[in-house]
Specification:
With 380 residues, the protein is of the alpha/beta class. It has two domains: 234 residues, Rossmann fold (3-Layer(aba) Sandwich), CATH 3.40.50; 122 residues, Histidine kinase-like ATPase, C-terminal domain (Heat Shock Protein 90, 2-Layer Sandwich). Helices cover 36% and strands 25% of the residues. It has twelve helices and 15 strands. The strands form three sheets. A six-stranded mixed beta sheet has the order 6-7-8-3-9-10, with helices on both faces. It has a five-stranded antiparallel beta sheet with strand order 11-12-13-15-14, with helices on both faces. Strands 2-1-4-5 form a four-stranded antiparallel beta sheet, covered by helices on one side. Helix 6 links the parallel strand 7 and strand 8. Helix 3 packs parallel to helix 5 and helix 5 runs parallel beside helix 6.
Length: 380
């Protein structure tokens, strides 16, 4: 790697499995918002990492801090052992090594497509005009845009502009490419052509970090997923773990696109009639069938009023909460009851009247007891 600055702070090599990028306690603060809170993570060469999560949770800010488009408030970023957040760091060399593709393309409108691709090669890499032209045309042929070399950006579709922007980044021969929502500004019909180019780069072993809302693409192309929420990497895992078996609650709610009604501190003086009305309103808002709404109300009455409250009061402790979750994608309602105390299954036997009533309106029931907490789930 070229020197990014003189007298830079360099960490010693830590062994065979050293990370390409190390982020330590990274924070970014603005006067009215804190988009990044104490982010620490290691990224290895060849990884394809998709960053997913709700809007406004720091995903794009993380990439912009890595590329030094934003100055972190606190923390440290190292690339191949070189501390890029050091004030003496040569920013252009960081960006040469760490290319970035933006959602708004950022092509120069007064330059042709081939000129856009040539500029950085000539100015930063020192290539001759002929070398830069040859490299640019090679890349344009690869992405199916050779016939657009002399066109201007406003003569291209959104998908073509983004493919050209990717070619411009690849021409600089970066070691990692950061993609900031590369398809969010595109018409849905153009998304596929851009994703296919990114897939090809992934198959060639390019290290990439991709902020995206394209969940199927993230699952298919990535070796690793960061789920970001509230300014932190809330969960980090393989695509299978994050999309099929998320370990943490907010990840599960996001992945399954759940709408949630949460009620806690349910006790003997709980206003049950008002809660029945809440369930009705929640069901209508999610456009549930009357059958599903009735099933939720029945389950709440039979489990809470007939079973859990009497049982937990008998133990001398009442600590019950309920999450009613609706997945539009699966057209599934799950009522998740949580309550502490000893292990307790609400129905003593399959012949219990309440049990039979709920079985008649539900798709199944499940009970688990973990770390002193009961989890009872009814699927409707």
């Amino acid at each position: 790697m070229a020197d990014m600055h003189n007298n830079q702070k360099v960490y010693p090599e830590a062994g065979v499995e050293t990370s390409m990028i190390s982020i330590r306690h990274l924070c970014k603060e603005y006067p009215n918002v804190i988009p990044l809170r104490d982010v620490s993570v290691e990224i290895k060469r060849g990884e394809v990492i998709s960053i997913i999560g709700p809007s406004g949770t720091g995903k794009s800010t993380l990439l912009r801090c890595m590329n030094l488009l934003e100055k972190p408030t606190k923390g440290e970023i190292t690339v191949d052992g070189v501390v890029t957040t050091d004030k003496k760091c040569k920013v252009n060399l960081v960006r040469q090594k760490m290319g970035m593709v933006f959602q708004s393309f950022n092509l120069f409108a007064h330059k042709t497509i081939i000129e856009n691709i040539m500029m950085g090669q000539i100015d930063l890499l020192g290539r001759s005009r002929q070398e830069a032209y040859d490299k640019g045309m090679e890349l344009l042929r690869t992405i199916g845009l050779a016939d657009k070399a002399l066109a201007y950006p406003d003569e291209l579709s959104g998908g073509q502009k983004q493919r050209a922007a990717i070619a411009r980044t690849v021409a600089m021969e970066p070691e990692i490419i950061l993609f900031d929502e590369p398809t969010s500004a595109l018409d849905p019909t153009m998304v596929g052509e851009v994703l296919s180019v990114i897939r090809r780069l992934a198959s060639q072993g390019m290290t990439m970090m991709i902020v995206t809302h394209e969940m199927k693409f993230a699952k298919d192309v990535s070796t690793r997923i960061f789920y970001m929420d509230q300014g932190e990497i809330y969960e980090d895992g393989t695509p299978e773990q994050i999309f099929e078996h998320p370990k943490r609650e907010r990840t599960r709610i996001f992945i399954r696109q759940l709408k949630v009604l949460h009620v806690d501190k349910i006790s003997c003086d709980f206003d049950f009639p008002a809660f029945i009305t809440q369930l009705e309103e929640f069901g209508r808002k999610q456009q549930l069938s009357q059958k599903q709404i009735y099933a939720m109300q029945l389950a709440a009455e039979e489990v809470l009023m007939m079973k859990l409250l009497p049982a937990t009061e008998k133990e001398g402790r009442v600590d019950i909460s309920l999450d009613v979750e609706y997945s539009e994608r699966e057209n599934l309602v799950q009522m998740r009851f949580s309550y502490s105390g000893s292990s307790f299954y609400p129905f003593g036997s399959e012949e219990d009247l309440s049990c039979r009533m709920i079985k008649g309106v539900s798709k199944g029931m499940e009970h688990k007891f973990e770390d002193g907490v009961n989890h009872f789930v009814i699927s409707i």
